[in-house]
Write a structure and sequence with these properties.
Layout (H helix, E strand, L loop, with lengths): L12 H11 L4 H11 L3 E4 L4 H12 L6 E4 L6 H14 L3 E4 L7 H8 L3 H4 L1 H20 L3 E3 L16 E3 L6 E3 L7 H10 L42
Parallel strand pairs: 1-2, 1-4, 2-3, 4-6
Antiparallel strand pairs: 5-6
Length: 234
């Protein structure tokens, strides 16, 4: 496969557009190959959702070793944490877990931020459990690019996403190998390849976030309708 490699600091919008045109016709496995040969500090960032575990399985099948960044918000379902352990045991990736700054457990988070911060200020909550830990991970690990499980079919602000994007504020390259896949394609792959998945998916969930803001989806709802239900957040 021809290399599209460009030093990360030299990427601009026109180059990203050209790269996306080239990658648009490639299968996820080919995109993963491209990412692996292009970036010398490539990570997978995942919360062990269905798409993330499909990517982990593809990488393992292709013999590509990519370390994983997991943002432990301290508010995940127990089932999610169990899946993280099972996935690491199966795929043998190096796991880097990042938690909210100064907090090793939920009690420490409450002591620092008070009860139910997500209700009082969801912006501060998101920054504390996701944005700051992610940026700290990118900096400490010197990440140049990360693989994500985001897909256009998840709708919302993801509907117009590209396979390769530059994250505003950090300049980090985000690569979305499954950008053009549907949930049904992800689920079919999980079943066909016996990929570990969150047991909550068998209880009506399709997208699993923190325990306090995730519910099963109803018939006909978008897969992320159960995330932050009743609010504008997804």
């Amino acid at each position: 496969m021809p290399s599209l490699a460009t030093p990360v600091l030299q990427f601009d919008e026109s180059q990203i557009e050209h790269i996306n045109q080239r990658l648009a016709t490639m299968q996820p496995s080919q995109i993963l190959d491209w990412a692996h040969v292009t970036f010398d500090s490539l990570f997978q960032e995942t919360a062990f959702g269905p798409s993330g575990n499909v990517i982990s399985d593809m990488l393992s099948t292709q013999g590509i070793s990519v370390p994983v960044i997991f943002l432990d918000t301290l508010h995940h379902f127990d089932e999610t944490l169990d899946l993280a352990r099972r996935s690491q045991q199966r795929y043998k990736f190096k796991l880097h877990t990042y938690k909210p700054d100064g907090c090793d457990d939920r009690a420490a988070f409450v002591a620092k931020h008070g009860d139910e911060l997500w209700k009082r200020d969801d912006t501060v909550y998101d920054y504390s459990v996701k944005v700051e830990p992610a940026r700290r991970a990118y900096s400490e690990l010197r990440a140049r690019a990360v693989l994500t499980g985001r897909r256009k079919s998840q709708k919302g602000d993801r509907a117009t996403m590209q396979v390769v994007e530059i994250e505003k504020g950090t300049g980090l390259i985000k690569i979305n190998p499954l950008a053009n896949w549907t949930f049904d394609q992800v689920w079919s792959y999980l079943r066909a390849h016996e990929v570990p998945y969150n047991v909550l998916l068998d209880q009506g969930y399709k997208s699993v976030g923190d325990y306090h803001s995730t519910r099963p989806v109803k018939e006909g709802e978008d897969e992320r309708a159960g995330r932050w239900a009743g609010s504008e957040k997804t």
